Every structure is written in C-alpha cells, then in structure tokens.
Design the sequence.
C-alpha cells in the first residue's frame, strides 16, 4: 500500500517496481486523507494517475475510489500494456471536480517498470485425432473449472476486501506514522525561495511598527555582514585621528533595502515581552508629557547615590497616558472598507463563469432571468462562486403606530423650536380667535400640563372640616364619579399589597414550539428542510449584506415560497 502524506507518496520497497507482463494479478492501493488542512472534503473529486515517460510521452489512468470516514483509498489494477515504456517512469495522483474548479495533485514520484521474458506457452507438436479431442475436452473442462475458481476467488476477495477495510485504514495510519517518524537523508537548508505563494500569504500578519536598526539582535547583525569585497581602486590606509567623513548625509536604511536572503535570515524565535528599556530615545521623547508643577520638599539628587526604596510601582495602564501621548500613538487612518457592489448580471451561472474568467475576491454579480436576481459572490480563499440568494426580501408586518412615549430625550430636545415673539396679557371679553380652523390635535392628557399650569389649577384652601359622628348621614344625594385605580394614592397602593404567597404548583408542560423550518413554511417557503438548513447556515455565516451605495443592510427572510434577503428595517 502506497501512503500519500501531504503531497508526497511513500512506497514500500516491493511496490515501487512494476512488471510489464502482469495482467490483472497485481494491484496498487494509494491511501490518503479525506480532508485537507482547512477541512476541504476531497471525496467528490475524480482521481487519476498521471504517467510521464523519459521520452516525454504522457498517459493518464483512472483510479477506483473508495471513501471512508476520514480517508480515501484509490485502487489501480495493473494490466499488461498500461505502461508503454520500460525503465524509470514518473507518476502523480490528480483529482478534479466535474467543473474543473477544484483541482488537487501530489508531487510526482519515480517508479521502475521492468520487462518480462516472453515465451510461447502453446506446444506445436503433432497429435493424433484422439489426443487432439482429449486435449480439446480437457481445455473446456479446465476453462470451466478456472471460471468457477475465478468466480469463487472473486467472491472471497470481495468479502475479504469488505472485512479488511478497517485493517487497511489502520495499516495506512501506521504507515503514515512510520513515515512521519522516519528520518531520511539530510536535505538542503530551507530558504525563502522554498515557500509557496499560499505559505507566504499565511505567514503575513497584521502591519507592525516600522522596523529600525535598534530592533536588530546581535545574531541578526552578524548575519547581515556579507562576503569580503574586491580591493577598491586608489585606496589608502586610514590613519588614526584623521576624520575622513565628507559631510554628506546618506539615505536612511529602509525595509525595501533588504535582499530576499537578508529577510529570510531575519526571522528568529519569538522575542521577549516589550519593556521600558526597549524604547528608543525618539520614542521616549514622544511619550514625554507636559512639564508638571514643582514638587514639595524636593532635593537635588547626587551622583552615586541610589534613591530607589525597593517598592514596586503600579503597572502602567492605558489611563496613565496623557492626551499628547495618545495623540502621538495614533496611527494613520486606514482605507475605507469595500462594501457590496453588484457589478452586473447574467442569465445563468455558466454565462457568469464564462464571462468572468479571472474574478477578484469579493466580486458580486446577479444571476437569473428576471429580478430578484440571485447574488453570486466570489470566495477568493476557496476559489469558487457562492450563491447568496436574492437581495429583495418579503414585505414585513405593519409596525405599531408611533406615540409620544417613543421619543428619546435627544429627539424631544431636537423638536424644541426657537423662542417666539413676546406675547401679551389677554383681556377679558376680547375675542382673539382669527376664524381659521386648525388641524385636529391629539387628546390632551395630564402629561401635557406644564408645572406652571398645574400650580395655577390648585385652588384656595377649603374651610376646616369636622369629625363625623356616628348615626348622622352626611350624603347630600349627589352622585359622584366612579372610583378607579388612578384615584389610589401611593400610600394606599402600598397598604393594599399583602404578604408574599406560597409558591404555586408547576403548571402542565407546554406544547413543543414550531421549528424555524415550520415557521418558514407557514410564511410561504416551499423548499425542502435540507435546502432551508443549508441556506440558513450560509446566511448566518455571511451575516448581513450591505449595499455600499445606499448603506442599507439585508438579512435572510421568507417570501413567495422561497428564501430572500430582506431589508433590516423591514425584517
């Protein structure tokens, strides 16, 4: 069994040689992991074995795929004639999907194809008619027996293959473990040129602070020293005490002045935590705040005297920065983020793929015969177009009417107009009504009174009352207003509250609530539960879609028997 670890094929010694004369008696099994490092499932791919000969000719052979939970087994049945040339042959396993979007391949590896001794297996001597008949009968019997044996062997092999699947996986895992622990010949030193574009992209972190000479370690400075150069023309031996500096200031050394080899050697082990001693004089100067007031009972320190009392100070926190220090630490404004821009539309996905052969990550197009279009967004990492459904969603339910209590304090303050002109004191029996009919206003409530109006409504103090006596009816016959909850005073309400009662018995278990899929069906969704779960998971992962022209946000909703994106304000 040949193990595929990463992109390399590991051969047992006996399986790296093929015999040209073998016909359906030998096979090779390639074992590989089902998932890549970022959990991309390779099982849907079709796998082939690409063959390259010394002469430059190439062939491709179909591999039979068996998918397990965490692995894939690829079977190659060796037949006479699968290799057109003997000697060293290079092979590689390749997989791709039906659309050619996903492609996966191993590094090529050498195998050796040996020829066989071709001999004539049929005897051409003379036989009598009886012998010829006996030979023909024997041949028929042997052929039938061979067929039965072959059928029995096939059935046994099939049963054995089914029962040995777990053992084959275990063997592949053990072989992979042996391969991981096996120590081969010492290879060439890894350099910057050995990185792939994907590895370099993965190594790129967030933008850090500008690199200065003070950031070099002693080991890095030693590595930056190049080989000794050739002797310069018209040179001379400098003498001690003589200043040969011509006064011209050179250009400052920048990150762009590094060579690729120097950058490769600069990456070392993780450094120590940044401390106060790591600041440069320039950085300390920027951190220095305004001059403080003169301290009380100070004194002039003297050289050679240690005034440190040994007490550990408080840890420096963000609140200890001065406004000037925070201003100095503030970096440049970043670029405006890229919103959702629909670049065009196509009738079908096939037309989109054909027209946009080299899309950029985040490119978005509408696909469909009519609005609302399905929005396809290109995933740069997975190298594929993802369908996010239409942007137009279902119309939401009618909201509650807006009332005065819905205003915030800020909104009420904004509604207050400018001060009007000075008024005048109205006089009795003067009609100031101008005859114009105004718009119908909201009903006047107690909350509409101002404090001054409430004070004006307060009447004069009444006459002193008296203590009623038992047996005397003071009712004057007039019917009063019915007593309501609003007539209670705060003290009366507090007195009406009784002691806390005992805990009641638990009520019956309520009926199970409806699932999101059932609710969507009631709202008109006509798809399957599997399609609904897939679309819902994609929508949750994608989050809200933002139109970079209008700034409107859209989230997933149900309308017209399908899932659509709905404006957040309407959702």
Sequence:
């Amino acid at each position: 069994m040949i193990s595929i670890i990463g992109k390399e094929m590991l051969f047992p010694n006996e399986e790296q040689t093929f015999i040209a004369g073998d016909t359906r008696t030998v096979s090779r099994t390639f074992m590989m992991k089902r998932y890549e490092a970022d959990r991309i499932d390779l099982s849907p791919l079709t796998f082939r074995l690409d063959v390259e000969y010394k002469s430059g000719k190439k062939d491709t052979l179909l591999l039979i795929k068996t998918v397990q939970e965490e692995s894939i087994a690829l079977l190659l049945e060796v037949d006479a004639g699968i290799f057109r040339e003997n000697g060293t042959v290079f092979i590689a396993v390749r997989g791709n999907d039906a659309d050619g979007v996903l492609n996966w391949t191993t590094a090529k590896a050498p195998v050796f194809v040996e020829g066989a001794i071709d001999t004539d297996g049929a005897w051409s001597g003379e036989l009598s008619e009886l012998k010829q008949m006996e030979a023909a009968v024997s041949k028929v019997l042997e052929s039938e027996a061979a067929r039965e044996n072959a059928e029995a062997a096939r059935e046994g092999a099939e049963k054995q293959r089914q029962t040995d699947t777990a053992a084959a996986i275990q063997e592949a895992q053990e072989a992979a473990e042996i391969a991981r622990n096996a120590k081969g010949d010492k290879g060439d030193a890894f350099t910057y040129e050995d990185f792939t574009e994907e590895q370099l992209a993965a190594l790129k972190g967030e933008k850090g602070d500008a690199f200065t000479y003070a950031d070099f370690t002693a080991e890095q400075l030693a590595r930056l020293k190049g080989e000794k150069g050739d002797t310069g023309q018209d040179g001379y031996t400098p003498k001690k005490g003589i200043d040969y500096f011509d006064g011209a200031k050179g250009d400052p050394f920048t990150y762009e002045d590094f060579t690729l080899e120097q950058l490769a050697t600069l990456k070392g082990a993780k450094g120590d935590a940044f401390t106060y001693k790591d600041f440069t004089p320039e950085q300390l100067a920027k951190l220095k705040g305004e001059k403080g007031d003169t301290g009380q009972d100070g004194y002039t320190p003297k050289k050679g005297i240690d005034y440190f009392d040994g007490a550990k100070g408080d840890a420096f926190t963000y609140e200890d920065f001065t406004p000037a220090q925070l201003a100095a630490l503030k970096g440049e404004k970043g670029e405006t983020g890229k919103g959702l821009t629909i670049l065009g539309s196509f009738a079908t996905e096939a037309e989109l793929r054909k027209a946009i052969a080299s899309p950029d990550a985040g490119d978005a197009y509408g696909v469909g015969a009519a609005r609302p279009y399905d929005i396809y967004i290109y995933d740069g990492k997975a190298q594929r177009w993802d369908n996010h459904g239409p942007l137009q969603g279902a119309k939401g339910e009618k909201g509650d009417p807006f009332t005065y209590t819905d205003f915030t304090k800020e909104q009420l303050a904004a509604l207050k107009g400018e001060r009007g002109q000075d008024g005048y004191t109205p006089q009795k029996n003067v009609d100031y009504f101008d005859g114009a009919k105004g718009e119908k206003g909201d009903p006047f409530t107690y909350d509409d009174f101002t404090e001054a109006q409430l004070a004006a409504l307060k009447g004069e103090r009444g006459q002193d009352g008296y203590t009623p006596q038992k047996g005397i009816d003071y009712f004057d016959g007039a019917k009063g207003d019915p007593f309501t909850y609003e007539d209670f005073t705060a003290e009366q309400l507090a007195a009406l509250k009784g002691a806390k009662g005992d805990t009641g018995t638990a009520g019956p278990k309520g009926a199970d609530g409806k699932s999101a899929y059932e609710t969507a069906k009631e709202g008109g969704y006509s798809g399957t539960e599997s399609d609904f779960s897939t679309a819902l998971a994609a929508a949750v992962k994608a989050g809200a879609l933002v139109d970079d022209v209008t700034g409107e946000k859209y989230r997933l909703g149900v309308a017209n028997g399908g899932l659509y994106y709905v404006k957040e304000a309407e959702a």
User: Anything to note?
Assistant: The longest strand covers residues 87-96. Residues 119-123 have pLDDT under 50 and may be disordered.
